[in-house]
Each structure stands twice: as C-alpha cells, then as structure tokens.
Write a structure and sequence with these properties.
Elements: E1 2-10, H1 14-26, E2 32-39, E3 52-61, H2 64-76, E4 80-86, H3 94-102
Antiparallel strand pairs: 1-3, 1-4, 2-3
C-alpha cells in the first residue's frame, strides 16, 4: 500500500532528525520504501507552530510493522508523525475510479 507520512519536528532538532532519516534510508526496514521526500519551505497547514519543520514522504509499505520500524526512532526523538493511507489515481482517470468505487 501507499501512504503519505507527515512529520512535524522542532527545527532545533533538525540535525538529529536528519541523521535518523539518513539511517532509515541507508537500511530501510523490510517491506518499506520511500518513493519521495519533501521538506516544506513554509507551513503547509493551519496550526503548525512557529519553529516547526514539516517533512512529507510518499512511501510504500507492506505492513504496519514496516511503517512502525521506519518511523518509531523519529517518534522517540519527539517528531509528530501522521501516516495516511492513499490511493494513486491516474491523471485524467478520476471519474473512472470513482465509478468503480461506487459499484
């Protein structure tokens, strides 16, 4: 399955969070793959406090255990993590997918 992982972190911990990300990237848990990573240059959502950074990842994961193995070290470092399951829909094909979902 594909997921969007939203990580909100204290900019004072940027070095620590970066090292944790590099560690996971160097040896990802089995069944976990980062497809893309974005660091937001401004607060992407209302309610993000000043002094916080936001990273958004697009990942594939085969299990909840794979996701937990990847994000738990960052959670222990104080990073707020939200994992959202997503479904990829081809551009120009939204109405066809919606019809299939409706039955």
């Amino acid at each position: 399955m594909k997921f969007v992982v939203i990580a909100v972190w204290d900019v004072g911990k940027a070095a620590e969070v970066s090292k944790l990300s590099d560690k996971v990237d160097a040896a990802p848990p089995p069944g976990y793959k980062v497809l893309a990573r974005y660091v937001c240059l401004a607060a992407p959502f209302d309610g993000i406090p000043s002094g916080k950074g936001v990273t958004i990842l697009n990942v594939e994961a085969e299990s909840a255990e794979a996701i937990v193995a990847a994000v738990y070290p960052s959670m222990l470092a104080g990073v707020d993590i939200n994992v959202v399951p997503v479904m990829e829909i081809p551009s120009g094909g939204v109405s066809e997918v919606e019809k299939k979902m409706r039955g």
